[in-house]
Amino acid sequence: MADFPKKLEFKLLERSNSDALRELQAVSKKVDFVSNDYLGMARNEEVFHGAHKLLVERGIIQNGATGSRLLSGNGQLYMEAESILCDYYTAEAALIFNSGYDANIGFFASIPQRTDVVFYDEYIHASIRDGIQMGNAKSYKFKHNDFKDLVSVIDRQKSSNNPNTEYYVVTEAVFSMDGDSPDISGLVSICNDQNCRLVIDEAHLIRGLGNSQLDVTKTDAAKDVLFARIVTFGKAMGIQGAVILGSDQLKTYLVNFARSFVYTTALPPMSIAAIVLAHQISSSNQGKEHKKLLNRNIKCFNDEVSALGLQNIFIPSTSAIHCGIIPGNDIVKKTAATLQKHGFDIRPILAPTIPEGQERLRFCLHSYNTPHEIKEVLSILANAINREIHV
Ligand SMILES: Cc1ncc(COP(=O)(O)O)c(C=O)c1O
C-alpha cells in the first residue's frame, strides 16, 4: 500500500491534539437522544411493509435504478412520487435528489450565477456553504437570525452591484445545530422590500407540530419571493433522499444544470416507494399521534430545563433539537461521556463543526422518548455541570 502523505498525517495529528478527531462509533443500544428519527419513522413497519407491497403490486422487482434519471433511471414511480410531494408540500414542481447534501450542492452550485449574490445566515448548513463555494456567485453572511444585520449587508452590496444581479437569501426553517428558527414572515417581508429571492432549507422542519408560522407557504406575501425549498427525508421521514420544491422552470433548470442530479445513479425504487409511504403515514392518524407525543416531549424537556435552572445553558427552542452550550471540546466531551455512562446516547458537537466557544451537547427529542428518560438525563446533566464546570 502507498504511504499516507505526511501533510495529511499532520492534519490528523492537529485534529487529535485539539480533541476534535472524528471517529466512527458503532450504533449503541442507549436511550436515543442523538438520531434525527424524530417521529420513529425509520423503524415504522407500515412504511417498511407498505413500500415493499407497493413495489410488488406494481411489478417493480428491481433493486437499483440502473442509471441516472436522465438515462435509464427514471421509473414511473419517481414521477408519481414527485407529484405526491407537490401536493404534500404545496409546490408547483418537485425534483428528488439522492440526499439533502446533493440537493444543496446541486442547487447552490448551479443557480446563482457569476454576477449574482447570495446572503446566508452564518449558521447555515455545511452542504449550503459547500454548494455556494462550488458556484461562481459572491456570497455574504449575516448574523444568525438577525434581520437588521441582513438588511445592512444587503444595503452594502446593492450599492456596488450591476442591475443584472440577482439576490438570493438563504436560511433554515429550523437550524440543525441550534434548534431555533428565523421569523419567516419577517424574512419574507425583507425579501419583498429588497427584491431578493428566498431559499429555505426545511431539513429539520416537522409539519403538524403547531408550528405553521415556520411553513413559508402559509405566508401570503411569500408568493412573489419564495424561490425554492429544500426538504430532506433522512430526518423526520426516517428514510433517505431529498426534494427541491419550486416552479416548473426551476425544475427544468436543475434537471439540466444541477450536476449532483445529472451525474449520479438515481435512488433505488425501494427508496422512492419508502418516500411515498412515509408521506402517507406522516399525515395519517398514526403520524398525528407520533407528532403529539413529540410535542409532549418537547414541552417536558423545556419544563425540566426551567425546573433545574438550566436555561442559561440551553438555546431557547420549541423544535425537536435542544442544545446546551458547554464551551471547550474537552469539557463537553467529558460531560457527554458522563451521560453515555448512564445509558443515554448524547453526542458532543465540537469545534470545528461549530465555532470555538460554542461547543455543545445536542439533544434530539423523539416521539418514542419518555418523560422519565428526559427528566433523568437532565437531572444527571445538571449534576455533572455543577460538578465539572460550576456554572
Ligand atoms: C439543514 C440541513 N440541510 C441539509 C442536510 C443534508 O441532508 P442529508 O442528510 O439528506 O444529506 C442536513 C443534514 O444534516 C441538514 O441538517
Description of the molecule:
The structure is a single chain. The protein is of the alpha/beta class. The protein folds into 2 domains: 26-43 and 285-388, Aspartate Aminotransferase, domain 1 (Alpha-Beta Complex), CATH 3.90.1150; 62-282, Aspartate Aminotransferase, domain 2, CATH 3.40.640. The protein contains 13 helices and 12 strands. The protein has helices spanning 6-17, 45-57, 76-89, 100-110, 126-134, 147-158, 184-194, 248-257, 259-262, 269-282, 285-307, 329-341, 371-388; strands at 31-32, 93-97, 117-121, 138-142, 167-172, 197-201, 226-232, 242-246, 321-325, 344-345, 347-349, 360-364. A 7-stranded mixed β-sheet has the order 2-8-7-6-5-3-4, with helices on both faces. Strand 5, helix 7 and strand 6 form a beta-alpha-beta unit. Helix 4 packs parallel to helix 5. The longest helix is centred in the C-terminal third of the chain and has 23 residues, at 285-307. The mean pLDDT is 95.
List keywords for this structure.
391 residues; alpha/beta; 7-stranded mixed β-sheet; 12 strands; globular; binds pyridoxal-5'-phosphate
Please count the helical segments: 13
Which CATH top level class of the largest domain fits? Alpha Beta
- Structural class label: alpha/beta
The number of domains is 2
From the spread of the alpha carbons, the general shape counts as globular
The helicity comes to 40-55%
Arithmetic mean of pLDDT: 95
Spatial strand sequence of the major β-sheet: 2-8-7-6-5-3-4
Task: Write down the secondary-structure element order.
Answer: HEHHEHEHEHEHEEEHHHHEHEEEH
Q: CATH superfamily of the largest domain, called what?
A: Type I PLP-dependent aspartate aminotransferase-like (Major domain)
| CATH-defined fold name of the largest domain | Aspartate Aminotransferase, domain 2
